[in-house]
């Protein structure tokens, strides 16, 4: 299948999931995750009119960003080491993996030095799997209090990763849990603006995530494919 056909197919699935859940598809943003594909394919993705590009390691993203950085909006979706903040700040408009105070401090400091604000999602480990990064749900509210004075961080929502399931329906409680946590945190009014965004859903489970309220889906293999010779393929 060509890239164009895959994009069409994904868009149709998004429309269908929105219909099933009475949502408007304008509220679902697609991030094309390019970690499995080349610089050339990443360029083709942007040419197809997709705006949002997601990468999870700076080492893999660097060449792509240097060639194409101005052509899209870049999302850092992977675990972020504190000593890598200097590499990604100012380049990635969104950081989806805010999961600890030391990282929040460094992002706030480096964004401040550039005179900018960085959009972040607080990553929460809803599934409780030990292999997953993220704050525990019960830590989320005190974390938001701890970072209230960090004026260069725009916390716009929450991010989670569901376990890989053969039957995507099994992921539903994880996505529902993230939405309920967001609503609960908004009830506590811990952030200057309400948390509106939910970054959840990948190739195998994005339709369920949309039905549960995802506003950003992160799609790699189903959308842009996987190519030999990349780190993750
Ligand atoms: C790789 C990755 C994705 C995309 O994975 P696919 O299953 O290929 O869609 C999404 N989110 C994160 C955090 C990733 O690392």
How does this model look, in words?
With 233 residues, the protein is an alpha/beta fold. It has a single domain (3-224), classed as TIM Barrel, CATH 3.20.20. The chain is built from 9 helices and 8 strands. The chain has an 8-stranded parallel beta sheet with strand order 7-6-5-4-3-2-1-8. Strand 4 (94-98), helix 5 and strand 5 form a beta-alpha-beta unit. The longest helix is centred in the first third of the chain and has 18 residues, at 3-20. The chain starts with a helix and ends in a 9-residue tail after the last helix. The protein binds pyridoxal-5'-phosphate. Pyridoxal-5'-phosphate is lined by residues 33, 35, 56, 77-78, 161, 202-203, 218-222.
CATH architecture: Alpha-Beta Barrel
Classify the oligomer. Answer: single chain
Helix content: 25-40%
Q: Tell me the series of helices and strands, N- to C-terminal.
A: HEHEHEHEHEHEHEHEH
Please tell me the total number of domains.
1
Strand order of the largest sheet: 7-6-5-4-3-2-1-8
Uncertain stretches of 5 or more adjacent residues: none
């Amino acid at each position: 299948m060509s890239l164009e056909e895959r994009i069409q197919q994904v868009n149709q699935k998004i429309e269908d999931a929105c219909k099933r859940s009475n949502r408007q598809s304008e509220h679902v943003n697609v991030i094309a995750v390019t970690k499995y594909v080349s610089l050339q394919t990443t360029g083709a993705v942007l040419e197809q009119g997709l705006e949002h590009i997601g990468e999870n390691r700076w080492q893999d993203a660097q060449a792509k960003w240097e060639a194409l950085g101005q052509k899209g909006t870049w999302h850092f979706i992977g675990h972020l080491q504190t000593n890598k903040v200097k590499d990604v700040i100012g380049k990635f408009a969104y950081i989806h993996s805010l999961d600890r105070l030391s990282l929040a401090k460094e992002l706030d400091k480096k964004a401040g030095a550039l005179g900018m604000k960085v959009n972040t999602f607080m990553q929460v480990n809803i599934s409780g799997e030990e292999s997953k990064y993220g704050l525990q749900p019960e830590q989320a509210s005190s974390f938001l209090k701890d970072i209230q004075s960090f004026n260069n961080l725009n916390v716009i929502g929450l991010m989670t990763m569901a376990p890989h399931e053969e039957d995507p329906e099994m992921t539903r409680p994880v996505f529902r849990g993230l939405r309920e946590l967001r609503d609960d945190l908004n009830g506590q009014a811990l952030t200057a603006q309400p948390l509106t965004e939910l970054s959840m859903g990948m190739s195998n489970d994005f339709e369920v995530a949309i039905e549960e309220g995802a506003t950003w889906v992160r799609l790699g293999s189903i959308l842009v494919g996987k190519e030999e010779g990349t780190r993750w393929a």
